[in-house]
Amino acid sequence: MARGPSRFALVLALSALAGIAALPPAAAAQGGASLVIQASTEPPGLDLTASPASAIAAVVHYNVQECLLKVDKTGALAPWLAERWYTTDSKNYTFFLKKGVRFHNGRELRAADVKFVLERARNPETKHPHRKRYEGITDIIVKDEYTVSVTLKEPNANFLLDIARQGSVIYPREAAETLKSQPIGTGPFVLAEWVRGDRIVLTRNKDYHVKGLPKLDKVTYRFIPDPNAVLAALRSGDIDVSGFGIGPEHVGELKKDGRFQVIVGDTTNDVILSMNSGKKPFSDKRVRLAVTHAIDKEEVLKGAMFGLGKVLGSNVDPMNPYFVDLAKAKPHDPARAKKLLAEAGLPNGFDAVLKVAPQYYYTVRTGEVLVSQLAKVGIRVKIEQIEWGQWLSQVYREANFDLSIIGHAEPWDIGNYANPKYYYRWDSPEFQKLFTQSETTVDDARRKDLYAQMQKMLAEEAPAVWLYMHPRLVVTKKGVTGVWKDLPIPSMDLSEVAWQK
Amino acid sequence: MAALAATLLFVSVLVFVVIRVLPGDPALVIMGTEGSPEAAAELRRAMGLDRPLVVQYLEWAGNALRGDLGRSIQYDVPVSRLILTRLPVTLPLTLLAGAFMVAAAVPLGVFAATRHRRGGDYLAMVLSQIGVAVPGFWAGLLLILLFSVKLGWVRAGGFDGWGEGLGAGLRALLLPAAALALFQFAVLTRTTRSAVLEVLREEYVKTARAKGASERSVVFRHALRNAMIPIVTVAGVQLGQLVAGSIILESVFYLPGLGRLALGAISARDLPVVQGVVLFASSLIVVINVAVDILYGILDPRIRYE
Predict the structure, then answer these.
(1) Which residue in B has a C-alpha nearest to residue A178's C-alpha?
(2) What span, in angstroms and rounded, lies between the C-alpha atoms of B232 and B228?
(3) Inter-chain residue contact A394 with B39, CB threshold 8 Å
(4) Residue A345 CB-density burial (10 A; 0-12 exposed, 13-18 middle, 19+ buried)
(5) pLDDT tens-digit profile of B58-110?
(6) Do residue A52 and residue B29 have CB atoms under 8 angstroms apart?
(7) Cβ pair B144:A232 closer than 8 A
(8) What structural domains does chain A harbor?
(9) Which residues of chain A neighbour B42 with C-beta distances below 8 Å?
């Protein structure tokens, strides 16, 4: 009989396994001034002036690098590296820099740095992803060491916002070529280590220009894409905060768990059903409106997002000061949808393909709910799942699609509808005129009125169906304080985050 | 050697062509929906992606021959350095999984064969059936739930490097290695069982028994030794499959290994990294195959290579 050796080997293998497992667990880094935060996507490089990815902003913007102005937690523009600014015509701007602000390399921030950063951004050779925003700049003059004035070709009311966005971070001239792996700035944290594929470690900037901040000594970003792995890591205590990885289906159970706090807030991420206006039958406004009336957005929100988020009616997100609530402007009305389809010569409905990228989990779920709703008015939709890279080529660049779902996370992005080449392929000279006016109008009340007109016009013309605002879902261990509830800009400010004493 | 070089040349062409015909423009993926299409087109030119495929291949292959696999678009470091920093995760993970697989499957297979059509055999077959049926990522999640969440013995994932000590490193790799080994363990158990069964029916086994050799000696010296050739063949192939399987388990346990590097690089269209990793992994598998061939000669002295 083969009793001895085979059994012996088995026992040996098992005891080796148990032996390694039973070693004392490593001391958990908790309670101190360090924090482990989960993010789903690792940044594609750390240079905010080379890539528009929000995964970079989530780490670098606000924490490592800062702008002249800051979008604060309410969405308002606040003075930051510029302690004040001055303009009367939205064309000539003067910025007065805060004194004594030091870059991570020890050098003081001067007006010449601002000039360098803006000139580099508008130079075609540096391939800034948002060069258009800086193209209107005609002159940058350093008045003294702490004063810089900027002149634009024509008034641009969005210029101050553009100066506060992730692409306008101020860095020292000598660091321009190494931003991708060693971003240097004026932020509350210094990049200490980037272990590619695993984690980014930030440490406290001892010379930070805001007294008393940051509150943490060390922040570790861990990149965990899989939501199940995120949940397990939360429960086993490996991570302290999940910034972006938890789906709405887990909110209920995590809320009941006394070890965690769940933060549900607002974002600028508008999830839309885009329709290809450059293609039949969506080139017919009646068809687009029929699709709009066929959709019950409340049910979509319940079915796809467990009721979290907010139903939308037009393109501007609820945190924007110019927001007009149009959620009920085009209500769910299947009878009306059928009538509109008949008027458009499609009494029996039509077939369409909905292209979605499952990398964004909500797109598939939302699509499934929409398919059943649209079927009720005779619009037979087939879902086609494609990989993100393909989505970008097929849908976003070539507009080779009927219907698609995606969240547009950029704040102040109504201008996309004024671009006939954008993948919606919606070409409305009237809307384009309104948008140009809004860009060059200085008076705030007048601008607000133009924004209201644009939002209403979008709801009437329906180049897309604005489904819902994707909620911000953050889970932290109990005792973590200072995390922003809402996210008016896709960046994550950790300067005030702390462990409760 | 010539065959080895030809295989690698073929693999390099295949890798290059397959990755280039993948739909999805790297420049566009980098710019995403936030960047303008004009910016993406400019980036495409800057990355040299608008040049003819043959020119791009020759340049890449020429550099690869000199050990230069290019520079990662996403991480801005040389690809070879990325591979070298990931190897200390994937290699031990695969070897540990391989060790688990062999240490559990060979004894269990032999045990099942000696209990042919009896309780022990059926039990072993049920175990291996479960191993075949349970997907590795799910087994990984179950192991995390039990050992990390419930018992708190090991972390739910992550790997901080061997600098933290051998024990900490091994502990981080324990669960993923076990989950990774499960399926291959099941397959190898079956292979071992049938290989040993086959040999046990041979005449010389009868002769050995008739000579009065002990059962232990019959099973281990006569049967197992002669059953080793099919077992080693299968185990060699499986070692390659473990390398492939690490892609999934490295994601479940968020280990910074080669698999996750490749996966991330594919979705980011970081072409130099994808090409480099695939070329490296194929070379690794070619090497494993050569090692298996050499092992044949040791196991069976009748096998000789010219």
Answers:
(1) B76
(2) 6
(3) no
(4) exposed
(5) 888 888 888 888 888 888 889 999 999 889 999 999 999 999 999 999 999 98
(6) no
(7) yes
(8) 2-185+472-499 (3.90.76.10), 270-469 (3.10.105.10)
(9) 124, 127
